[in-house]
Amino acid sequence: MLKRPRVAAPLRRAVILSGLLLALVVSITSAQAPDSFRFAILGDRTGDPQPGVYEQVWKEVAAEHPAFAVSVGDTIEGMNDASAVAEWQQIDHLLAPFRRIPLYLTPGNHDIWSPASEEMFKRYAKHAAHYSFDYGPAHFTILDNSRSEELAAEELAFLESDLKAHARQPLKFVISHRPSWLVNAALGNADFPLHQLARRYGVRYVIAGHVHQILHIELQGVAYVSMPSSGGHLRLSRAYQDGWFFGYSWIEVTGGRTNFQIKELKAPRGQGRISKVTDWGLAGLLKQEQREPVPAQ
């Protein structure tokens, strides 16, 4: 019978310790930069906020255990320096039960409207008005067009510098509050600075809020998406098939691939319908069979 060679106790302990340290390093690395993860993108909370909607959004998002959430802006109603601090404190209290979920804020026109409000945004968001971050294979650039319908030259310069510095990231998102790209993308005009940068650096998604309606336009491999409302009032027809409903986006990332879903809130503020972003176009749902009949007046 073969005898198992004896290993000295100190050596055996050292081998075990090395193995544990290696496993710990691998675990930490995986936790910091997973290839597969899920996250949520929230639409506008304000712009005539509807009671209870944002709270329901967060409850439904939290139940799915996202790695983090990104807001497209308009977190407070704002527009008044004197009451803004109280509004941010209210948001801090509202989000307290969900603090385990990192939240990245985009500045909206209801968040920043003056120098004082910009400082308050930075204080409560804990980051600059424009910034970026990585998560696994994905890179996110957050731009500030809170006080202009267009992206200012400094925002475009920041975007180019940021995308160039993170060119190796395989999946890129650019997020701003106002859809400053809307007219050009809708007309199929590829000759505007944001799109040229997106094409040059391989941006897959350009996402905004502000209009409270789900819109989706594909232009030369770049998906332009306007988010549905996460609390701000619904306009025009208020019909689901036209893109007017309360909800959020749920995105699953696997390597460099995405599964981009649009989730309507469940009852009492919706029917819990789930669609893909590609089901939507510039004028609502693309497929006729997905559209519901409009009730007779």
Per DSSP, the total helix count is 7
Strand-residue fraction?
15-25%
The overall pLDDT, averaged over residues, is 90
**How are helices and strands ordered from N to C?**
HEHEHEHEEHEHHEEEEEEEE
Which spans of ≥5 residues are poorly predicted at pLDDT below 50? 1-31, 293-297
Question: What this model shows, in words?
Answer:
It is a single chain. The protein has a single domain (37-285), classed as 4-Layer Sandwich (Purple Acid Phosphatase, chain A, domain 2). It is 29% helix and 22% strand. The chain contains seven helices and 14 strands. Strand 5 (138-142), helix 5 and strand 6 form a beta-alpha-beta unit. The protein is globular. The termini are far apart.
